[in-house]
């Protein structure tokens, strides 16, 4: 969903995070004072916090850099621009992944589709969890790509995307980020982001993959109150003096994603596994692995050549796992 032009114009003026008097806003937007008040309320109902202070006016809780399609596209190489067939930025959506999964079902040949959002009302994490997605401060990004081979050829794709995310973060000065098998982006044992890849298609025919990434840039503790695990955002990692541009980071992520997906059929996970191992933040750690209702305690040895988790159980046996949820075991 796109906000109305009136809401977008009001947000555009408030985005700098400074105070704007009611008179100034009403004049600049050509609104009556009551129309302004209505739009302020409507934005608040959409979950955007606006402070109103007598004698000063209105301001957002903090400044926002809204996503901008031409800024992002202009930051992509022309090779990547050519791979993109559609590019939408939603002010609000249920979930960017859900939207592209529906598109791949309705128009199976769709490929190269990018869907971004300022806010998700039903953002989805792995294992049916909610992905907390407040307005305007983090990145919620999905890409739909059609592969000519069946789903089996995509094993390891989500791990390769993890490597792509790290490269984009490093390019923006965000160092020390690791990967937690299978799909988490971690920093100092706290979750910074997550990847959700959803594949559909016949076992032997072409298939579609929706690659979703949620990355925390700035989350307030209120917004994060429903997150059940330790989390971190880029503002905490970089400190308040160092700001990065959401649009530039989003462009770098897309550049890296398209590089991986457009070459994945010929290169497969083999191309990425050494790099993945470099960023593995669980190797040597004592963990509990949750597989369905079973919990296996052990030490992580790493991943095998196909991206499966290698775990040495407490009895000393080495086992490999294709799926599961790992949690650090603190002694
Ligand atoms: C996880 O770690 O559990 C995966 C999180 C994936 C979240 C992203 S946000 C963009 C895309 N849309 C969704 O609903 N989920 C993914």
Task: Write a structural description.
With about 325 residues, this protein is an alpha+beta fold. It is about 30% helix and about 25% strand. The protein contains ten helices and 14 strands. It has helices at about 5-15, 20-30, 35-45, 70-75, 80-85, 95-105, 155-170, 235-240, 245-265, 275-280; strands at about 50-55, 55-60, 85-90, 115, 140-145, 175-180, 185, 190-200, 205-215, 285-290, 295-305, 310-315, 320, 325-330. The strands form three sheets. It has a seven-stranded mixed beta sheet, with helices on both faces. Strands 13-12-11-10-14 form a five-stranded antiparallel beta sheet, with no helix packed on it. Strand 6 (about 175-180) and strand 7 (about 185) form a beta hairpin. Helix 1 (about 5-15) packs across helix 3 (about 35-45) and helix 7 runs antiparallel to helix 9. The model has no long low-confidence stretch (mean pLDDT about 95). Biotin (BTN) binds near residues 129 and 140.
